[in-house]
Amino acid sequence: MTQTHPTNGPPDFERSVTTDQWLRFTEVMQAQVTPGAWQTWIQRLEPSFDGQRLTLRAPSDFHLRWVIDKHGQHIEQACLTAYGSDVELEFTIGEPSEEAEQPLLPTPTDSGRRSTDPLPSAPPAPERVARLVRKYRFENFVVGQSNRFASAAAMAVAEQPGRNYNPLFIHGNAGLGKTHLLNAIGYQALEMYPGMEVRYVTSETFFTDFINSIRRKKMDEFKARYRTTDILLLDDVQFFDGKEQILEEFFHTFNSLYESGKQIVITSDRHPRHLHTLEDRLRSRFEWGLLTDIQPPDVETRLAILRRNAEHAAMAIPLEVLEFIAGLVSDNIRELEGALTRVTAFASLTGEPISHPMAERVLQDMLPGHESKAVDAPEIIAATAAAYGYSVEELQGPSRKQPLARCRQVAMYLCREHTDLSLPKIGAQFGSRDHTTVMHAIDKVKSVMQTDREVFDRVSELSQSLRTR
What we know:
The chain has 469 residues and is an alpha/beta fold.
């Protein structure tokens, strides 16, 4: 599922919704939600379908957040049922088009009923929340010895923002859960304080916003956006290393928020003392509050993570298989989860019961004795493009036609599995695509691998060749 945000104006929507498919979509949705939810939230979404992607436009950021939080899974299922697995689902924000004087969604049979869905007592203004990833919550963050203190500190910040541990600085290698904790803080704070303004942003996005504001001579808007938020969640601050102009701006943003009692949470792949080009004045501010790290998970935590993932698998996974995978991957949760995905996908496609010998066959390229070579995103993109018969330029271009779009999704998935790049950095390798687009691609490939043998084989072959080239 992809979520985008408005630019200078609403997109020019083509009103090309296929009637039969759309009616099926609405039938599935009406069976899943109450009439009140339908009238208040779902019916106000404006659809557009271009043959490749179903886009639903919400009238405001708050409306979008509410719909995704409360009904996102129902909408995803309705899209899958009505349009099939090859169609992407995208959300965006903007005012309804001029033609849409009446709702495009058909009214349910009992539409005369009054809405019974609870509404928040004090709805926040537009853009109260920015760019949080819905699946990253405290309830699905597996706590172990390696991350217990960071998790507890993050929870304390979410419960009393601006009072406990301000700023909170979390550092650790890629793939260990820093982004998960940032988003969990945002969601927990919003559940406890619905009127708060929470802004999750990667350092790359902060930098891009800053440059664009200078170019458009709208620095006042930039300062208002970042210096008035109640909670600023900044991911991958190491991206600022060596960029003097953005460091100066962030220094003033930090001071403004801190002096106003606003909460700041920052993540980095290293301790502040190892961010060598930071000025002492900024480095010292990072140390005003609480510094905590996340270490690679121990075997017990890795096993707990696998058990949590196994709960959602379509078939039972023997404990000995989970223990085998937990012993195979030691320092990266992404790779750990990827190994489990490969095993369950193979079982789903072949009908073979999951067993220790089967897992060894599927994951043979990860066994001791197989040397793994570090690869970067350009290598992965080039290898994936060649395997599908496309050029690198096509993968990085704007076209969303199949099977090019699937090839691009596979390349994004492999970048996530084989590199330490963050979601925004992966998106930047594919024509500056949004991090939510990358997340959708990763989830899509994981899902399709369970049912499509060709995709599974292609991904497995590429993964093995990348490890051993």
